[in-house]
Write a structure and sequence with these properties.
6 helices, binds flavin mononucleotide, 202 residues, Rossmann fold, globular, 7 strands, single chain, alpha/beta, five-stranded parallel beta sheet
Length: 202
């Protein structure tokens, strides 16, 4: 019997129960219904520090992620990333980009790069080989289309997805989410969450 798919969600929202939390949960609920095992990492509760740009992890050759000098939650998170069959990357737009919380995480993905001293730029350890699927979730106060076209949020999420060797199969950019203090996931976003879940396990 084959094991069920394990889908890992990495959420860079600061706010508990806000749009991003609800959108990620909605995708994961759909995935649960489709028989997947799911895990929701809320970076605000996750103990990782800032990348120190020491590049020690990037000196180690090979396809496996390098080892960071910091002993925090990142090693565990990298293990989860390696084990997962697919990913949800999510962050709201703050100042035209992902939150600093998500950016801090994505900089720690340096372990997925090989960049020995003397080499002009890094090569990515997972550039070759099979690509696992990823979906992206972002939101903003501006209208969604404007957000998609002008903000870096979706692009930043995509860079994180590519760095770990995954392929973005779908994304959801929702605008006009900051009109009220308490957000309720709109029906359109719920329908989109179902599409994203199906794309992940297709
Ligand atoms: C400090 C801050 C900066 C923000 N910057 C932007 C922005 O540049 N553009 C935009 O459309 N919305 C911006 N927003 C609105 C957020 O994107 C919106 O509230 C968020 O998507 C809701 O997600 P959440 O419920 O998960 O927090 C900002 C919100 C905050 C608090």
């Amino acid at each position: 019997m084959s094991r069920s798919k394990y889908i890992l969600a990495i959420n860079g929202s600061y706010r508990s129960g806000g749009f991003t939390d609800q959108a990620v949960d909605s995708v994961l609920e759909n995935l649960g219904d489709l028989g997947a095992e799911v895990e929701h990492i809320r970076l605000r509760d996750y103990p990782i520090g800032f990348c120190r740009n020491c590049r020690q992890c990037m000196q180690q050759p090979g396809d496996a992620p390098g080892t960071c000098v910091q002993e925090d939650g990142m090693a565990d998170l990298v293990q989860k990333i390696e084990k997962a069959d697919g990913y949800v990357f999510a962050a709201p737009t703050n100042f035209s980009s992902v939150t600093a919380l998500f950016k801090r995480f994505s900089e720690r993905l340096a372990v997925y790069g090989y960049w020995p001293w003397g080499q002009l730029s890094p090569t990515f350890r997972k550039a070759k080989g099979p690509k696992k699927p990823a979906v992206l979730i972002s939101s903003c106060a501006a209208p969604g289309l404007l957000g998609r076209l002008t903000y870096g949020t979706n692009r930043n999420l995509r860079i994180a997805a590519r760095t770990i060797g995954s392929k973005v199969v779908s994304s959801m950019v929702t605008g006009m989410v900051a009109q009220e203090q308490d957000v309720e996931l709109p029906p359109r976003a719920r329908r989109r969450a179902s599409v994203l879940a199906h794309r992940l396990v297709a």
